[in-house]
Amino acid sequence: MYREEKAELKDVDLILDFKLDIVFNSAEVASMEKNEMEKLVNYCEEEIRENIDKYKLVYDDELLVAAYLVDDYADGKMIDLIYVVLDKRQNGIGNYILNNIIGENYQTLYAWIYKENEIIMHMLTKHGFIIEEDSDYKYLMKCDNNKEENTNIKIKLFKSEVEELAKKYDIEYNLECKTK
Length: 180
Prior knowledge:
Radius of gyration: 19 Å
Strand order of the largest sheet: 1-2-3-4-5-7-6
């Protein structure tokens, strides 16, 4: 089926092309002055270089079909990019990526999307995302990602943090924690 690989520095230009394809399809960005667009391109390239080790490339056999980035954000994770190569869209690749992201993360998930991007809006809504915030040209979408196993993971992490603090400050404690 599909396989994922971590992106490398040699992939910066490719990921930049993907990101700019999304960004420049926004009416808000398309109406920017040329110098503002150049600043945006430079910002995107800098951000990609700084976070290249967090980007994932998705292959179907040897053919690159998509890229995505999930990063820390507030109390959860931000889906910063899901890009499927144009001639591979509508084949379930975006759903494959989103299902993996949801399955691999126990935290709340977020995604900023352009209002014009109805396809990603539909896909995120189908996976339990709701509009958390509405700006002029984007939505912040949120998925609480409340699966039973996620609650158990959060309980275990909390218990572990309490144990560490108790040891650090030489405090006795009794924290009973039962999970299903």
